[in-house]
Each structure stands twice: as structure tokens, then as C-alpha cells.
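Model the whole thing, not chain by chain.
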Amino acid sequence: EAQVTQNPRYLITVTGKKLTVTCSQNMNHEYMSWYRQDPGLGLRQIYYSMNVEVTDKGDVPEGYKVSRKEKRNFPLILESPSPNQTSLYFCASSLYPGSYNSPLHFGNGTRLTVT
Amino acid sequence: KQEVTQIPAALSVPEGENLVLNCSFTDSAIYNLQWFRQDPGKGLTSLLLIQSSQREQTSGRLNASLDKSSGRSTLYIAASQPGDSATYLCAVTTGANSKLTFGKGITLSVRP
């Protein structure tokens, strides 16, 4: 089944403890992206990747890191989490977003709480 | 900077009603527009994608239209059902980096 898989689904951690949220897609998609969703603010892009070894900042990259060493994986790293990073995080992928017929596929989300 | 607006933020209708959800965007130089559905606490599911050269797309009871020149799209839902209750988001793809910009969504409640 074609899908985007994120892990974990739920995560509670403490300020300053490094964590990684994994994302994997099995559709051979070029493009992958991370978003956070907060009440009243909607979906905001954190980082995106157009291809292997190519990553770029989205709208809210501060406090996050990503890597794209393989086409299928795009982990999100929080080196020193803070309470303002408490949010619902989504990974998404598409064949290529600039393509005229390339829908975006989302994972089921990771709900992160930083205390 | 592209901005996407969805008004109203919430909508409640009785079952069986035909309804229209609106989406507007400020920069008409888009590659495509997508409509998504999000159930509470879940990820987004792509419903329809309209290419910039198209005027509409249909899938079952859903029909999405695009008027690029006026910066508007509508999602028409025919014969609404309680199972249609969810948040509906639109997103446009623009720019050299093919950035997606999302609206904040419309939360739809269909009353039995």
C-alpha cells in the first residue's frame, strides 16, 4: 500500500532532550516536507526536500533540522526541544509539487508535547 | 507572498443539503490547487487536484472548480452526509520552489 509513515504517533518529552521523528514513503517520491499544525495558525512548513541531499527551509525552520540521505526517508530532528515546539507534526511527499498532477500525500501525524 | 483564505471557518448544515466551500488566493501564478480533507487528529487526505490549465475536477459527489484569474476555487459537495463532517483545506502550489500554501480550513458539520 502506498503510504507515508511517521513514527512515533505520540511523544512526550522534556525541554532540551534531543529527539527524532521519522518519516518514510514507499512511492519513490522526489519531494518531501515537514509541517506543523497549531490551532489558529494552520499548517506551516518547517523544511522541505526536492531530492536526495537537497533540503531547504520553510516558513518556520528555527529549532529544527532535517536530512535526506535516502530518497524514502526524511527525519525531523529537534536538537533541544522547547515547550513552544509542542504541536502536531505532519510529514508529506509528492512525486514533484511543481508537476501539474502531483497530489501531496500526508502521514498520520505525530503529536509532540514538550514539558 | 501567497495567501490563502477560507471563509467561513466553520459551517453546519442538515444532511442532504448541497453545499459550497470557498477558497481564495492572492497570487494567480499557481501550478495547481488541491483540496484536502482532515478528520480530527488525523492526517490530510487529498480529495481533488486541479491543474492550473483546468477549470474543474470531479470525484463522486465532489466537484472542485478553479478561476485562476480571480483567485478563487470552490468545492461543491452534493447531497451531504454525516460522514462528510471534517475539516476541508485548500492549498495552492506557486513559485520557483513549488511551495504549497494552505488555507486554515473550513470545519464542516453535517447534522443527521
